[in-house]
Design brief:
Layout: H1 8-57, E1 58-61, E2 64-67, H2 69-73, E3 84-90, E4 93-97, E5 112-117, E6 122-128, E7 134-144, E8 147-156, H3 158-193, H4 195-205, H5 223-273, H6 278-309, E9 319-322, H7 323-340, E10 344-348, E11 354-357, H8 359-375, E12 382-389, E13 393-400, H9 407-410, H10 432-442, E14 446-452, E15 456-464
Parallel strand pairs: 10-12
Antiparallel strand pairs: 1-2, 3-4, 3-8, 5-6, 6-7, 7-8, 9-11, 12-13, 13-15, 14-15
Bound molecules: adenosine-5'-diphosphate (ADP).
Adenosine-5'-diphosphate binds at residues 368, 372-373, 376, 400, 402-405, 413, 418-420, 423, 428-434, 457.
Length: 468
C-alpha cells in the first residue's frame, strides 16, 4: 500500500501554493511579454511615421536637395538631448540632423539589431543614447534623385522602459500577494472540507465492544463520507456477528461441558456415600470413563474450531496434498466404528487428485462426514465415497442410506452444537459439521447437503483443484 506522510491539510496547502504560484507566474510572464511587445511596437510605429514625414520634407530647389527645416525643428527635435532624434544622409553625406543631436559622437548605427524589414528597407535597432539612455533607432534606406538616401528617426526608451519595469514590479507583488491569499483560502477550505471526517473519527473513537450496535447514520454524513460510513457499519455488523458467535460459543461450550461434568460428579458422590460392590464400582467407573471420553471429544472439537477461527490455517502454509490419501486416512479412522456396525465403506477414486491445503485438517473434515454417515446408518448399511474431479475443482461426495435429515433441520446441521432431536441417542458433539464447513471455507471451498428422511443423505464438499 502506498503511504502518504503528513496531514491532508498540509498537502492541500502546499499544492494550492504550488499550483496558484505556477498559474500566476505563467499569466504574469505572458502579460509582461505582451505589454512590453506592444509598447515597443507602438514606439516603432511612431518612428516609422516620423520617417515618412521626414521623407516628405525632402525636396529639390535650384538643383539642391534640402530638408524643410523650419517645420521639423520646431518642437521636440529642437531641444538638445530631448530624447527624440533624426538624421538624413544623402550618399553618406549628412543632409540634415536634428538640433537635439548635439553629441555628434552618438552613432545611430551602433545599436543591436531589433528587427529588419527588407521589403520596407527598414531596420530597427536598440542603442545607447547621448545621455546613456536606451534608444530605439529606425533606419530607412531609399533611392532619391539618383542618389541613395538614409533617414534615421530615434527615440529614447527611458520613460517606456521605466513604465515596463514598474509594471514588472507590480506583477511580482501581485503574484506574491495572490499566491499567499489563495494558499490561505486553500487551507481554510481544506479545514472546512475535512471537518466531517474529523467528526466521523470522533464518532468511531467512542465505539466500544458494548456499543457496537450504535451505527453511524449515513444520512447525516457528507456525501463522500456516506459510502465510508456504509462500509464501516457493514464492518461493525460483521464484527458484532463474530463477537456474538464467540459469546455464544463460550456459553454453549460451558453448557455442553456442564452436563458430562455433573454426571461424573454425581457418580463420584454416589460411590463415596458408602462402600459399594465391585460390580457397582465397575459400572460407575465405566460410565465416568465414557462420559470423560465424550468430554475429551467435545474439547478436541472445540479446540479444532477455535484454531480454525483463529486463522491457524493461513494459505501461505498450504502444501500440495493428495485428496486420495486424505480419503484413505479418513476411512481408516472410521473403520473401527464401521466394523462395529458391519457397515461397508466403498471408495470410488478413479484418478489421483491434488489440492493445496493442510493434510491433517482436510483428513479431519472428510472423517467428520464419513463418521456421521456411519453413525447415522443402520447396522449392515453401506457408505459410498466418490472423488469427482473436473478441470478446476474437485468434488468429494459421501452418500449413506441411513435415517436422513428432516427438511427443517437441513439448514441448521452446520450450526455449532446443533444436533437434531433424532441424533440425541447417538454419540456426538454437534461440532463435526461446523468444523467441516470451516475447513472447506478456509480452503476456498464449499460444503452442502441433500437428504430425504428414511432414505439417506448426500454430503458434497467442493474444493479448488491443484494442477501441476
Ligand atoms: P454430531 O456430533 O451430532 O454428529 P455434527 O455437527 O457432525 O454433530 O452433525 C450435526 C447434526 O447433523 C447431527 O447431530 C445430525 O442430526 C445431523 N447429521 C449429520 N450427518 C448426518 C447424516 N449423515 N445422516 C443424518 N443426520 C446427520
Amino acid at each position: 500500500m502506498k503511504s502518504y506522510p503528513g496531514s491532508i491539510k498540509g498537502r492541500f496547502f502546499l499544492w494550492s501554493i504550488l499550483i496558484t504560484a505556477a498559474v500566476l507566474i505563467f499569466l504574469g510572464i505572458s502579460l509582461y511579454v505582451e505589454i512590453r511587445k506592444s509598447i515597443l511596437g507602438s514606439i516603432e510605429q511612431t518612428l516609422h511615421s516620423k520617417i515618412q514625414i521626414l521623407k516628405g520634407l525632402i525636396h529639390e530647389e535650384h538643383g539642391m536637395i534640402e530638408l524643410e527645416l523650419a517645420e521639423v525643428v520646431s518642437g521636440e527635435y529642437s531641444v538638445p538631448r530631448s530624447g527624440h532624434y533624426y538624421k538624413v544622409l544623402l550618399d553618406n553625406e549628412v543632409l540634415a540632423a536634428s538640433p537635439s543631436l548635439v553629441d555628434e559622437a552618438f552613432d545611430l548605427d551602433s545599436g543591436k539589431l531589433f528587427s529588419h524589414d527588407p521589403a520596407l528597407q527598414q531596420r530597427v535597432s536598440l542603442s545607447v543614447g547621448p545621455a546613456k539612455e536606451p534608444v530605439m533607432v529606425v533606419r530607412h534606406d531609399f533611392p532619391l534623385f539618383d542618389a541613395q538616401a538614409t533617414v534615421y528617426a530615434a527615440q529614447s526608451l527611458s520613460g517606456s522602459l521605466q513604465l515596463i519595469s514598474r509594471f514588472r514590479m507590480f506583477l511580482f507583488a501581485a503574484i506574491g500577494i495572490n499566491t499567499a491569499v489563495l494558499a490561505l483560502a486553500g487551507l481554510w477550505i481544506a479545514r472546512h472540507a475535512l471537518r466531517p471526517l474529523e467528526e466521523f473519527s470522533t464518532h468511531i473513537e467512542k465505539i466500544t465492544h458494548k456499543t457496537m450496535d450504535e451505527k453511524i447514520d449515513p444520512a447525516f454524513q457528507a456525501e463522500e463520507i456516506r459510502k465510508v460510513a456504509g462500509s464501516f457499519n457493514a464492518m461493525l455488523d460483521r464484527l458484532q456477528h463474530a463477537f456474538e458467535m464467540e459469546k455464544s460459543l463460550v456459553a454453549d461450550a460451558s453448557h455442553e461441558l456442564k452436563t458430562p461434568l455433573s454426571i461424573i460428579k454425581a457418580q463420584c458422590d454416589v460411590l463415596l456415600q458408602k462402600d459399594r460392590t465391585k460390580e457397582e464400582y465397575t459400572r460407575a467407573l465405566s460410565q465416568i470413563n465414557a462420559t470423560s471420553d465424550a468430554m475429551k471429544n467435545l474439547i478436541a472439537d472445540m479446540l479444532s474450531l477455535a484454531r480454525i477461527d483463529a486463522g491457524i490455517l493461513p494459505a501461505s502454509r498450504f502444501r500440495v496434498v493428495s485428496l486420495n490419501h486424505c480419503i484413505d486416512r479418513a476411512v481408516k479412522l472410521a473403520e473401527f466404528s464401521a466394523g462395529e456396525k458391519h457397515i461397508s465403506v466403498h471408495k470410488n477414486m478413479p484418478a489421483p487428485v491434488q489440492v493445496r491445503g493442510d493434510e491433517d485438517v482436510l483428513t479431519e473434515m472428510i472423517f467428520n462426514i464419513v463418521d456421521n454417515a456411519v453413525k447415522y446408518s443402520p447396522e449392515g448399511g453401506t457408505v459410498d465415497i466418490a472423488l469427482l474431479p473436473d478441470n478446476s475443482s474437485v468434488q468429494i461426495e459421501v452418500r449413506d442410506h441411513g435415517k436422513g435429515i428432516r427438511a427443517e433441520d437441513l439448514e441448521r446441521v452446520f450450526d455449532r452444537f446443533y444436533r437434531s432431536d433424532t441424533a440425541r441417542s447417538t454419540d456426538g458433539t454437534g461440532l463435526g459439521l461446523s468444523i467441516a464447513r470451516a475447513v472447506a471455507e478456509s480452503h476456498g471451498g464449499t460444503i452442502s447437503v441433500g437428504s430425504q428422511t428414511g432414505r439417506g443423505s448426500r454430503f458434497v464438499i467442493r474444493l479448488p483443484r491443484h494442477r501441476a
